[in-house]
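Moderator note: this is an archived Q&A kept for reference. The question asked for a predicted structure of one protein chain; the sequence and the answer are reproduced below.
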Amino acid sequence: MKQLIPFSNGTETDLWQFNNCHKCALYEDESTDISEAGCKLAFELDMGRITGTISEEAAQGIGYTEMGDKFVRLVEKCKQFNSK
């Protein structure tokens, strides 16, 4: 599976997650396995903070624009967003 780079640094990650994941009814940060996650996309983003990448499947679920070889820009509001 292709891995993509959605953010250039942790600040970009924080800002995007604050405006999406942390305001979404699906988000929780207690899962230790993706199969238990309230939102698999958020789980991948959380893990991506360590690896620097997310799967192409996760990026498609969120919505993105290609910016080059492996680099992508995620849409401003996640396609799965469900306000609290």
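Archived answer notes: The radius of gyration is 12 Å.
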